[in-house]
């Protein structure tokens, strides 16, 4: 009897072991990855089984948001896709409401990955150029990926003793170049540059092209030393640039993405960026402490000011300012240049935050995603601004490092009489509208050129002339290109008649209408994905419709490389189109058949294969 019981026990043990082996042979907790499209979804565990691969993840977003995982989501290994089989943690409906914690734990099931797979890509909507959540290079060996940091950077010795350059006006070319370590073109990583320029501030910044090997180069004219920003995905790095300088930047791509996650933010605190060249030491300090020069960098800034009164807002912003100031003053490791620059920029940030209380409070609910916020009374007393009018930066030449024209505008407007005017103010006020026009890639008119001639300061005049000539040259170069046609549409054409008017000349042909704008990254990426379809289906008429939110100059420079028929409609027409055809954004596509009827409509790029299939139906 004991022998029989022993054999039964052994048999049961073997069966259990076999079952467990069949169901879960391999588990990786908190797997490292190479890049991601955002920080809202994080993979906490991957379990590889014989019949299923399980991905335990958390979704982080605003409480009350509705989320889902698209049914087209796949895991990809060496080019082969493994389909999504469903998920636990979601409601039975298509969308799931995120709880008050702002976190939603889910388990996603996929077709089984090969047991010997070393890594995979998590790809939501893989055939849509406007991708959803994507995490690339998820490691299944439990190891941290090695990206090969150059030896010269590991042994780098920087000079932190350089004083800040005098904030004098002197135009010169500035070059930013460098390398992204761990880069892969398939990750969709973007680089964006924005300079706090006196004259040409661009809210969207300039996209910096990245070569296949991860190298990049960008040059621009600067009128004086000052700050700029470089964005890698959603990560922002503060820079200090000087006319005539060259800054070499090396970016640690995986570490940058890890720094934005909950899983790795505290665990991985390695260096994200290295600088060489002009003011490399100061730029290294700004990469570490740059957030201290901006009160808006405080966690949940806009969420915390929703519905507050102006006095509550002022108290909150002042508390941030005082804390950041104390952090800077207490940090004895900072160089003199970094100390001075951080304090100056922090005071500027505080000044404009208090001055702009009304706009900040008003837009806070929209920015933070809070709904149903009741707006407080915006009335303030005459002493509301007393503290910011006494800030040191106002009386320092270092005020020129930042948004000096914004200060001049305030000093000659709402605060008129509070400051002693300077001779350069008149030139700044004349130049700023010209700079705004040029920032929209629009060459100066004859009247504006007369205003330019009236400016006394030679370096301001030179900066405007350099930018104007660059735009004139770009437009002339674009005009020489062929393969595109610009058409005019009467502003009186209504939304109901717009598509019929545009396509009337092409009866008997299939027409693809692409609603886009120059600032829409997904629109541009989708156009590149559709290029093979255009080359194959040459009988289709390709029509591109932008609106006035695309600056006319930028539009004219961009469209020569987008072969087809181009229209630029009014914002009113564009808004009416969105309401009539019920599409919330762009890109939106209409396919019009040979008789002029809309046969297909979709918002968001559905993939080149889908568009091709729909075109071939007609």
From TrEMBL:
Swiss-Prot/TrEMBL GO biological process terms: cytochrome complex assembly
Statement: the UniProt record of this protein carries the keyword Isomerase: yes
Source domain of life: Bacteria
The Thioredoxin domain, residue ranges: 465-618
Main location: other
GO CC annotations on file: cell envelope
Entry keyword set: Cytochrome c-type biogenesis, Disulfide bond, Isomerase, Redox-active center
UniProt keyword Transcription regulation present: no
Compartments where located: Cell envelope
Gene3D superfamilies per record: Glutaredoxin
CDD domains: TlpA_like_family
GO molecular function: isomerase activity
Name the record gives this protein: Thiol-disulfide isomerase or thioredoxin
């Amino acid at each position: 009897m004991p022998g029989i019981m022993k054999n039964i026990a052994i048999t049961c043990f073997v069966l259990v072991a076999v079952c467990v082996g069949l169901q879960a042979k391999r588990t990786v907790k908190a797997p490292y990855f190479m890049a991601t499209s955002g920080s809202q979804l994080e993979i906490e565990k991957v379990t590889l089984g014989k019949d299923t691969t399980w991905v335990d993840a958390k979704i982080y977003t605003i409480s009350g948001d509705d989320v889902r995982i698209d049914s087209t989501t796949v895991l990809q290994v060496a080019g082969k896709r493994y389909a999504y089989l469903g998920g636990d943690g979601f409601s039975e409906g298509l969308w799931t409401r995120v709880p008050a914690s702002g976190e939603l734990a889910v388990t996603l099931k996929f077709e089984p990955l090969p047991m010997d797979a070393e890594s995979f890509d998590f790809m939501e909507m893989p055939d849509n150029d406007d991708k959803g959540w994507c995490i690339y290079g998820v490691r299944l060996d439990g190891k941290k990926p090695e990206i090969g940091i150059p030896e010269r950077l590991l042994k780098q010795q920087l000079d932190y003793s350089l004083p800040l350059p005098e904030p004098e006006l002197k135009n010169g070319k500035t070059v930013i170049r460098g390398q992204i370590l761990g880069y892969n073109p398939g990750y969709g990583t973007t680089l964006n540059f924005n300079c706090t320029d006196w004259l040409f501030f661009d809210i969207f910044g300039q996209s910096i092209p990245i070569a296949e090997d991860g190298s990049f180069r960008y040059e621009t004219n600067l009128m004086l030393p000052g700050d700029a920003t470089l964005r890698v995905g959603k990560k922002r790095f503060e820079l200090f640039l000087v006319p005539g300088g060259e800054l070499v930047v090396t970016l640690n791509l995986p570490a940058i993405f890890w720094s934005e996650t909950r899983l790795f933010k505290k665990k991985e605190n390695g260096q994200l960026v290295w600088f060489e060249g002009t003011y490399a030491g100061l730029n290294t300090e700004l990469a570490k402490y740059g957030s201290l020069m901006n009160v808006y960098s405080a966690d949940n800034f806009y969420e915390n000011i929703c519905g507050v009164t102006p006095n509550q807002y002022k108290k909150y912003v002042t508390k941030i300012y005082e804390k950041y100031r104390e952090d800077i003053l207490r940090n004895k490791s900072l160089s003199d240049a970094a100390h001075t620059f951080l304090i100056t920029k922090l005071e500027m940030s505080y000044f404009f935050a208090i001055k702009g209380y009304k706009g900040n409070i008003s837009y806070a609910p929209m920015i933070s995603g809070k709904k149903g916020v009741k707006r407080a009374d915006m009335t303030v007393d005459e002493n509301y601004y007393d503290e910011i009018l006494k800030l040191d930066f106002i009386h320092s030449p270092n005020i020129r490092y930042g948004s000096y024209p914004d200060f001049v505008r305030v000093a000659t407007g709402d605060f008129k009489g509070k400051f002693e005017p300077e001779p350069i103010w008149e030139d700044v006020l004349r130049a700023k509208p010209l700079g705004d026009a040029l920032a929209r890639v629009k060459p100066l008119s004859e009247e504006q050129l007369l205003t330019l001639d009236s400016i006394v300061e030679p370096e301001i005049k030179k900066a405007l002339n350099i930018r104007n000539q660059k735009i004139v040259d770009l437009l002339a170069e674009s005009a020489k290109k062929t393969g595109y046609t610009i058409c005019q549409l009467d502003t009186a054409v209504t939304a109901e008649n717009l598509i019929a008017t545009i396509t009337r000349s092409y009866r008997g042909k299939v027409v693809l209408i692409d609603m886009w704008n120059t600032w829409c990254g997904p629109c541009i990426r989708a156009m590149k994905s559709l290029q093979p379809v255009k080359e194959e289906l040459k009988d289709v008429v390709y029509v591109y419709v932008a609106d006035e939110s695309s600056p006319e100059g930028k539009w004219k420079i961009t469209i020569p490389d987008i072969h087809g028929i181009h229209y630029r409609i009014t914002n009113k027409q564009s808004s009416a189109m969105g309401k009539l055809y019920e599409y919330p954004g762009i890109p939106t596509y209409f396919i019009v058949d040979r008789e002029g009827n809309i046969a297909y409509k979709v918002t968001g790029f559905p993939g080149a294969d889908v568009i091709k299939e729909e075109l071939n139906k007609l």
